[in-house]
Amino acid sequence: MLTRRSFLTTLGAAGGGVVAMPLVSRRGHEALLAQGTDARRADRLMAARPGVIRIDSNENPYGPGETVFATIRAHLAESNRYPVKSEDDLAATIAGVHGIKQENVILGSGSGELLRAAVSAFTSREHGVVSPEPTFEAPANWARFIGAPVIAPPVDAELRLDLDAMADRGKGAGLCYFCNPNNPTATVHGSTDVIVYVDSVNRSSPNTTVLIDEAYFEYVEAPDYATAIPLALANPRVVVTRTFSKVFGMAGLRVGYAIGQPATLAKMAAWLLGSNVSQLSLVAAAVTVGNGRHIAVEQRRNRVNRTSLRAFFEKAGYRVAKSDANFMMVDIKRDARQFKVDCLKHNVAVGRQFASLPTWTRVSLGTATEMRAATRVFARVLAAPPSTTGPGG
Question: Are 51 and 347 in contact (CB under 8 A)?
């Protein structure tokens, strides 16, 4: 349903004259469902059943911590007011953490809203989006919905993004989506690779914007990795996005942000809803974004659980891709869709199948207790002949 506010936002983004994106009519709704939205919802509803170990969506199983909960409780009385100052406060806090100016930050309802805004702002029917296969699907799905072409170079044999192919095939694109670490493969590129890639795109396709998604930044241990924020501050064709959904444990509160030059961010902001982050989410994010202790605790937990899960699969004879995130990809040597169904029968939800990697499954990291229970299920399922039955058994 297209609200008055989103309609006016669309008009503004289109220059006040022509509506550039299709109205979200029933036909548009069906178009989104055709891209798997309905199936995704059904999948998540099954994972949300009581008693299911949810290691399917790259969430932080430990949550945001008591500091965030106490802050939300302390601000409940402000729930009747639209957020105004708290938006500025969070943007200023984020800027302070990164040592940048507040004008270099915009907020989103999770980073997902910002990715959609970038596709709307920088692509068109003539200038599409480069979105590798596989990567986080939201930018490509939105591009298809608004009629922009999608260029999808496959990952390489190590499940790393093929940056040369992305640069070669992305000439003339409006946007290049660079998820680093990449979801779902959990692989990462070092800072030199990122700089060389951006320079290559700038030279061969100077009107192309590169969006570097650093949703899993805090989990990376690769020594050559670094944030691309300095690139975004120096280069009007680069934007970096971050989210509070991962290490900060706030996936359900929906807060993200983008960093870039003010003029670049303004093009994206034209596609964002006003008051797009709730009052309680804003104050919660403000108290955790600079909380180094919370980050260190979550990094340590993630490292221990990631090492243990890798050891389990490798000891069982399965290939595990290198992971610099809070999930990993495992070649289970059977149909990943059916493996997911079989695990659900035992109340363990793992990631969905990705078409280009049909025998690889994505496993998010849960708590230590959850992972011990999950590995027992994995051992049981993988010891049995591949199943061909549905969730009902």
Answer: yes
Same domain, yes or no, for 114 and 235? yes
For residue 254, how far is the Cα from the chain centroid?
A: 12
Q: Quote the mean pLDDT of the chain.
A: 90
Same domain, 340 and 266: no
Half-sphere exposure of 352 (CA within 13 A, CB side): 19
- In one-letter notation, the amino acid at residue 43 is D
SS3 241: strand
Residue 119 and residue 212 share a domain? yes
The domain spanning residue 299 has which CATH number?
3.90.1150.10
Tens digit of each residue's pLDDT (9 = 90 or more) over 156-195: 999 999 999 999 999 999 999 999 999 999 999 999 999 9
Residues 101 and 238 in one domain: yes
Say if 393 falls within a structural domain: no
Q: Is 32 exposed, middle or buried (0-12, 13-18, 19+ CB in 10 A)?
A: middle
The pTM score is 0.88
Residue-by-residue DSSP string for 57-77: S---TT-S-HHHHHHHHHTGG
178 in the same domain as 98: yes
The gap from C-alpha 222 to its chain's centroid, in whole angstroms, comes to: 19
Distance separating alpha carbons of residues 21 and 33, to the nearest angstrom? 17
Determine the structural domain holding residue 70 and report its residue range.
64-290
Angle in degrees, 0-180, between the axes of helices 336-344 and 368-383, rounded to the nearest 10: 120
Q: Six-digit token pair at 235?
A: 């280069």
Find the largest Cα–Cα distance for the chain: 62
CA distance 363 to 146: 31
What tokens does 370 get?
Answer: 């959850």
Are 334 and 269 contained in the same domain? no
State yes or no: pLDDT of 205 exceeds 60: yes
> C-alpha angle 336/342/344, rounded to 5°?
105
Torsion of CA 128, 131, 136, 139, to 10 degrees: -10
Domain count, the chain: 3
Distances (CA, A) of 339 to 151, 181, 343, 354, 374: 29, 25, 6, 13, 13
Q: Let me know if 369 is exposed, middle or buried by CB neighbors in 10 A (0-12, 13-18, 19+).
A: exposed
Shared-domain flag, residues 265 and 328: no
